[in-house]
Amino acid sequence: MYILAILLFSSLAFLNVFNKEIVDKYKVIFAFVCFIFLIFHDGLRWETGTDWLPYTQAYEDMANGIEYVNYTNQFESGYLMLFALSYFISDEYTVYLIIHAVIFYTLFFICIFKLSKYPFVSILVFYMVTLPYLGMNRQFIAMSIYAIGLIYLAKGQRYYYLLFIAIAFFFHHSVAIAATAVFFNKKIRNRYLLIVLGIALAISFSGIIKTLSTGLALVLNGSMEDKADAYTNMTNDLSIVSIIFSLIRKLLWISLLMIFDKKVDDKDDSYYTFFNMYFLGSIFYVLFNGTPLQIIVSRALIYFNIMEMFLIPYVLTIFKPNYGKLLIMFVLVAYCYINIKKGFDNFAIEGKFDLFEPYKGLFINTDYVRQTH
Predict the structure, then answer these.
(1) Is there a contact between 161 and 181 (Cβ–Cβ < 8 Å)?
(2) Separation in Å, CA 206 to CA 202, 215, 242, 292
């Protein structure tokens, strides 16, 4: 399933870059194919993703008559309302997954086709960023509302953006961190960015963050119990080679945009917002990569990391057709595959967790026994 998705989105991304006329002519059809594929991908999965077992258990409890008030300390009020709407329609969790997927992808597709220079390139990158977090149901709904807010932020309408952040807050409180985007719409000189990056690298290699986060993880384990325990034990010690490779992978697009800044076409305030948000997310990645809090931090920063789907189309404007763009597109496909694999590995502990591979759905790998705890 994952390989099929990458092939589909990559093919349309290549077409988007090298045959824009055909894409413009059949954009609605291509977008509909991607949309329906993703609805089936998410809506017909079973025991695939991070929502097994907590969300399935909650849904079954509510569908069986257990008052949803029992979950008010676990789930935000907006999400409980979505749950209630879904199980009013059907007590099948698959119905909920389809409703959830329709909301999530509808709002993000609107955002992508409004803001991206190469929307099908953005869909490929969007799939890469979100797939390893599949099943973060509350946060995905918050992200989709936030995505609509980005359209207003790109127009300079900050108050409307903050309004959407406030609405999204009722689905997942982590979205509050995205409110800081209103301060990131100005160009920051490369020298200052390099200084911040240098400091972050120095702190990271010093091991201070790893020591501090280990202590914080112990505190979290005492207060968040199984969830924090699962996250904080999903990190293995990384070698220097692995750390350097991860940094190169994470900073690839930032480096190109900084080096060839003057060649990037059609930059406006939204470009600097996207760049600065992604840069900030990358700084926190540098600081927390390989530490016990890596997964928790990456979840909080997904609102920043998602900016990658808008930045890579800007990278493509730097290079002349066709060889330069062709090289970048091949690098991008490999980059997406590597990131997806790494994302899956973050949630995989032999004998304990097996959340994504292989893809298991209602009609695919139905006999596979998933390790979920």
Answers:
(1) yes
(2) 6, 16, 16, 16
Helix (H, G, I), strand (E, B) or coil at 372: coil
Secondary structure of residue 349 in the 3-state scheme:
strand
Which pTM does this prediction carry? 0.88
Q: How many other CB atoms are there within 10 angstroms of residue 25's CB atom?
A: 11
- Cβ atoms of residues 223 and 307 within 8 Å: no
Question: Once rounded to an integer, what is the mean pLDDT over residues 307-316?
Answer: 93
Q: Which residues contact 46 (CB under 8 A, 6 or more apart)?
A: 94, 360, 361, 362, 366
CA 245 to chain centre: 20
Give the pLDDT band (50/70/90) at residue 286.
Answer: confident
Let me know if 38 is exposed, middle or buried by CB neighbors in 10 A (0-12, 13-18, 19+).
buried
φ/ψ (deg, to 5) at 346 = -65, -25
Q: Mean per-residue pLDDT for 154-162?
A: 92
**CA 251 remoteness from chain centre:** 17
For residue 236, what is the DSSP state?
P
